[in-house]
Design brief:
- This protein is of the alpha+beta class.
- It has 3 domains: 84 residues, Uridine Diphospho-n-acetylenolpyruvylglucosamine Reductase, domain 2 (2-Layer Sandwich); 138 residues, Uridine Diphospho-n-acetylenolpyruvylglucosamine Reductase, domain 3 (2-Layer Sandwich), CATH 3.30.465.10; 184 residues, Vanillyl-alcohol Oxidase, Chain A, domain 3.
- The chain is 27% helix and 21% strand.
- The protein has 15 helices and 18 strands.
- Strands 15-12-14-13-17-18-16 form a 7-stranded antiparallel beta sheet.
- Strand 5 and strand 6 form a beta hairpin.
- The radius of gyration is 22 Å and the shape is globular.
- Pfam families: BBE, FAD_binding_4.
- Keywords: FAD, Flavoprotein, Oxidoreductase.
- This is FAD-binding oxidoreductase.
- Belongs to the oxygen-dependent FAD-linked oxidoreductase family.
Length: 471
């Protein structure tokens, strides 16, 4: 193990000597003025394109991450590890800071026992494709370009969560670089506090993960479905949905999605991980309870194709489904989004739908929890929302000029949901105006999480506006 120097006393803020990293990384250290800088500095959300990191270090090994931290940590710069770059607030591309980009570490290896070793820079479509070749699957999200690192560290809500748990629940080990440049493994028996914190404690806190080990499940065909209900039925559909899925087998996952407008629209999309014939009777039960006939799409697909379908990726081949550079830019989005996490009981459906009235362009996505998510105690991992009925994401695409109005609208829905009883929040939908965000994200786990952060990063090397140390 290398004995890298520790953080300089007094927090000196002289410029780093980028020549040290240039000698190690060569062209993979991208500085302002370099040809790749205009693209490499960008995150997923276009609203934060004005942020200009001091450097992007495309690191290909734990050793290179160690070197990055050793060179930079004494200089007062913000440091962020970037897996997929999907931070809702652009925290993975800190202005005038260092981005430790992990995309060079994106390998997926499946061992004979089904354990998967996954580089922290892998995107979800790469993870799902690599697992599919071995006949395996991992619960996770639907957006194909999201990084496995950020998803896992925040918990990992996804379409197989009720059947197989959160992504972080499947994490058997993580290889990390700590703030003082030590390379360590975090497992239940080795660095157990760090292992606990990495499962739901949020990206950007405590350490830089370079590789995960996951316990995967055997892949099988999945039934995916979309039920678009007629105008005026949102209240009855939401009320029925809240009673329907908790009583269903855990192989069922379903999202109730309400679109804002003068008459809010509603659809239910989801996935059934049981025997293919089992989905039909369950869907019929929901439709009968809702009292409204939807336009339906139901398909049985292989696991990889099902995940592509859920992500809106309808292309024929894995290669085409990969993110591609178009005009020098990765396809991205411009949006504001916030979240809430429900308690164990249903919300007043009419009141929820009323929150969406006359909010054109705003979507409320309620994603079912329970099942395997609830098998663990709230303090078993840093992710605390084990008894929650569902998570809620409030999302609005917008331009920079429209962002203040869109933000006000999504915040109003967020606060309205809190008044109805949904007071938690999901750290992967990070929100800079969320009241009491530390407790909303981490609940009663916050004090322990702060202690772990202090233990592994006493000097605040991994500081950012919503780091655990600031909660």
């Amino acid at each position: 193990m290398n004995a890298w120097p520790t953080r300089m006393a007094g927090g000196a803020k002289m410029p780093p000597d980028w020549r040290v990293l240039r000698r190690l990384l060569g062209a993979r250290l991208v500085l302002p003025g370099d040809p790749d800088y205009p693209v490499e500095r960008l995150g997923f959300n276009e609203l934060y394109d004005d942020q200009k990191p001091a450097a992007i270090a495309r690191s290909a090994s734990a050793y290179e991450v160690q070197a990055c931290l050793a060179v930079v940590r004494a200089h007062g710069l913000l440091i962020a590890a970037r897996s997929g770059g999907h931070s809702y607030l652009g925290y993975s591309v800190p202005d005038a800071g260092l981005v430790i980009d992990l995309r060079e570490m994106a390998g997926v290896e499946v061992l004979p026992d089904g354990t998967a070793r996954v580089g922290a820079g892998a995107r979800l479509i790469e993870v799902y494709a690599g697992l599919a070749r071995a006949g395996r699957i991992l619960p996770g999200g639907t957006c194909p370009t999201v990084g496995i690192g950020g998803l896992t560290l925040g918990g990992g809500i996804g379409v197989l969560a009720r059947a197989y748990g959160l992504t972080c629940d499947r994490m058997a080990a993580a290889r990390v670089v700590t703030a003082d440049s030590r390379a360590v493994s975090a497992t239940p028996d080795c660095e157990p506090d760090l292992y606990w914190a990495l499962r739901g404690g949020g990206g950007g806190n405590t350490a830089v993960v370079t590789e995960f080990e996951f316990r995967t499940a055997a892949a099988s065909d999945l039934t995916v479905f979309s039920l678009a209900f007629p105008a005026g039925s949102a209240v009855s559909v939401l009320g029925a949905w809240q009673e329907w899925f908790p009583a269903a087998p855990r192989e069922l996952w379903a999202s109730c999605q309400i679109s804002g407008g003068s008459t809010p629209g509603c659809r239910v999309v989801g996935c059934w991980a049981g025997e293919p014939g089992g989905a039909g009777p369950l869907l019929d039960r929901l439709i009968a309870a809702a009292g409204a006939k939807p336009t339906s799409t139901v398909q049985v697909l292989g696991a990889l194709d099902a995940m592509k379908w859920m992500g809106g990726c309808a292309r024929d081949t894995i290669a085409q489904c990969h993110p591609t550079w178009e005009g020098g830019r990765l396809p991205r989005d411009s949006f504001v989004a916030v979240s809430r996490v429900l308690g164990p009981d249903p919300l007043d459906a009419a009141a929820v739908v009323e929150l969406m009235r006359d909010r054109s362009g705003v979507d409320l996505l309620l994603d079912s929890l329970g099942g395997a998510v609830a098998d663990l105690a709230p303090d078993a991992t840093a992710y605390p929302h084990r008894s929650s009925l569902a998570s809620a994401q409030i999302f609005a695409s917008t331009s920079a000029s429209g962002a203040p109005q869109a933000k006000a609208s999504v915040d109003a829905v967020r606060d309205g949901l809190a008044a109805l009883g949904a007071r938690g929040a999901y750290v992967n939908y990070i929100d800079d105006s969320l009241p009491d965000w530390g407790h909303a994200y981490y609940g009663a786990n916050l004090p322990r999480l702060k202690c772990v952060a202090q233990k592994y990063d006493p000097d605040g090397v991994f500081d950012f506006p919503q780091s655990v140390s600031r909660a």
